[in-house]
Amino acid sequence: MTEKAMNSNNNNPKEEAVKETAETQGPNGNGKTEKEEVSEKKGEKKKKEKKDKKETKIAELETKLEELSDKHLRLQAEFDNFRRRTLKEKADLIKSGGESVLTGILPVIDDFERAIESLKDISNDDAGKQGTILIYTKFKEFLKLNNVKEIDALHQDFDVDHHEAITKIPAPEKKFKGKVVDVIQKGYILNDKVIRYAKVVVGE
């Protein structure tokens, strides 16, 4: 065997090993072929795109949830306002309806007071007088039960919030100047609201 042939046989195992390693590792030397790397990169890109889509969808859902929550709060506030307004209107209606009835009774009270005044010279044992006083008393009790109070006017300082001056006359005494010296028609208050002003004569 020649020296050249011997050298050729000695190099073959080493070259074969290098060749085998290169084939196993691929052209990039990382154990993957170029095709595999491209496929892997595509897979990673798809995963990233899928993740981005999920994050975008979550953000959209969070925004939608926030909008719905805000809308719910507004509707709740509107409903509460509507309920309060309805209750107030109902209360005002009941109150105004009651006020109308009570105001309508006042002239009847006036008539009974005039009738009782005309019966002052008649004996208290008189059945007619007793009946008139009894009915009058029941009317007064009814007004009291419904929070209707008579306005205190006689000998009080004239008050435009409760009194209506019909006329003025010279005060019989100095202490009655600017005060109510006579009451022509009684006034009444319902729950701190004047439902009829007292018609009075004021001293000056």
Mean pLDDT: 83
Q: What would you say the CATH architecture of the domain at 148-204 is?
A: Roll
DSSP summary, beta strand count: 6
The Cα radius of gyration reads 52 Å
Strand order of the largest sheet: 1-4-5
- Strand content range: 5-15%
Q: Could you please describe the fold and organization of this structure?
A:
Keywords: Chaperone, Cytoplasm, Stress response. It comes from Mariniphaga sediminis. GO terms for molecular function: adenyl-nucleotide exchange factor activity; protein homodimerization activity; protein-folding chaperone binding; unfolded protein binding. The chain is α+β, with helices and mostly antiparallel strands and 204 residues long. It is built from three helices and six strands. Strands 1-4-5 form a three-stranded antiparallel sheet. The chain has a three-stranded mixed sheet with strand order 2-6-3, with no helix packed on it. Helix 2 (34-118) runs antiparallel to helix 3.
Secondary structure elements and their pairing?
Blueprint: H1 3-25, H2 34-118, H3 127-145, E1 148-150, E2 163-169, E3 180-185, E4 188-190, E5 193-196, E6 198-203
Parallel strand pairs: 2-6
Antiparallel strand pairs: 1-4, 3-6, 4-5
